[in-house]
Fold these 2 entries.
Entry 1:
Amino acid sequence: MGAREAGLPEVVPDDAGSGLPESVVIWEVGARDGLQNESSVVPVEVKLELLDRLADAGLTILEATSFVHPKWVPQLADADELLARLPRRPGVVYPVLVPNERGLDRALAAGVEHVAIFASATETFARRNLNRSLDEQFVMFDPVVTRARTEGLAVRGYLSMCFGDQWEGAVPRPQVIAAATRLLEMGCSQISLGDTIGVATPGQVTLLLRDLWAAGVSPDQVAVHFHDTYGQALANTLTALRAGVRVVDSSAGGIGGCPFAGSATGNLATEDLVWMLDGLGVRHGVDLDRLARTSAWMAERLGRPSSSSVVRALTG
Ligand code: HMG
Ligand code: MG
């Protein structure tokens, strides 16, 4: 008998009294972050079915794809076709990544309502991921944000390498805070703090969020985006929730990674997050069994088992 059939997890609300929320918004990035890093290109039909199943499982924010240069990320070269064929569900938003005005043109033509720009906190990753210097990336993003807002779109700003960079090592917190506040001043309504290579530990999360709040950033403006390379993503997420964050990025089945950051592996698995939130009595709106079955189905399509412990436990 699996843990699920045995009635686990028992709901035991956290009594540390340190501000866990009643509910959390899950920002599902599987179709974008998950599939951008696959060695093979996943057929558009499979992507459409994945998005459909994720919506069936109750997820309401489904990051769908990226309008980036198709030669840079061939795995998402079908972004225009995907959006053209994607049936929109009421109550579900489908954000897409756009790096520049060309990407925004394509996103607008596809009828999207929510875009995300993606900046780097470090010089090296800005060059590797965007072919721009740290300063030049903001010059590229500025007109994108202005025009997107004029068109009535919501704009999220990702910030990568917030907790460590494989080329530069430790990233000074003031450098991260300067880039984060720049994204907000530019007009992003939310920033998502990325641990792109999955090296962060909870103490770092506490300190970065403390310094961000001290710099005048509100917890309502911040989401967290942890990759799970060193198995710390869930602990980091719990730390961020206790510090006031209410929006968490995760990917179904724990797929994901950035092709331009060699040691990036999968995101925090949505199932692992949901299992923890269930146990803590924090609402999220997701049907865990349905989601786990979707990730098991996707794992078959990708030809390898899910990296999520919860998916394996529930579907094995
Ligand atoms: P570039 O080569 O410097 O581009 O790439 P350019 O501005 O010099 O333009 C060159 C040509 O590309 C032009 O065509 C443009 O029109 C075309 P030409 O005039 O020569 O015929 N072009 C485009 N075509 C289609 N769509 C576009 C586009 N842009 C230019 N959007 C660029 C600069 C930013 C485009 C490139 O570096 C790029 O596409 N980078 C994307 C990298 C990426 O997608 N990385 C993964 C996402 S980030 C991530 O995963 C981290 C995150 O998960 C958070 C975390 O984990 O930390 C978000
Ligand atoms: Mg990522």
Entry 2:
Amino acid sequence: MEALILIVEDEAPQAEMLRYNLEKEGFRTVLATTGEEAVQRTEVEVPDLVVVDWMLPERSGIDVCRQLRARPDTRDMPIIMLTARGEEGDRVLGLEAGADDYIIKPYSPREMVARVKALLRRVQNQVTAERYEYAGIVMDLVSHKVTRDGAPVHLGPTSFKLLEALMERPGRVYSRERLLNRVWGGDVFVEPRTVDVHVRRLRKALNDAGGPDLVRTVRGSGYALDAQKA
Ligand code: CA
């Protein structure tokens, strides 16, 4: 599954130029023209990376950055800030607000794509966790053992991989396609419905020992692990 890039830019020609160049490189893109819309987009599906313009109507790119950094599911999401400003103080402000990288307009599309790729690589290399913990679930990736509130949870290999994908970023909504790709390696003979079957199995195994159901079903979108669900 290609990485999803959220572009937050109010000037249409700029946005289209970005979209064109990123899609040409095989990325999926989604566009938002205001900070408000950008935040809403991330609530539907957490992108793999955000390119956000500093100068937006109403809410600035800085505000968007801060807001995304304050949310657990988007806290570690890579963010590139775009700006026409080039002063050192602005650069520092952008980075302090949580941007990972900073590009000054006008920029070349080629430079932008290179920076996006570099940042994604950096983030992907960090995913070498040996253990995940979320809402009482502890997942040991080395010994392949899972507990919930201290009680063992018995999972088959597929359910284990499924949980691993969901635990990587709690709160993030994973589409069936994304989970298929991740757990079954994009096997073309596996139907999306299979994902539903395994999610049901995983949910049952997790809930066997009691406790609230942590698996959120997002109709038409997919699944997430979410302690906030109600
Ligand atoms: Ca702008």
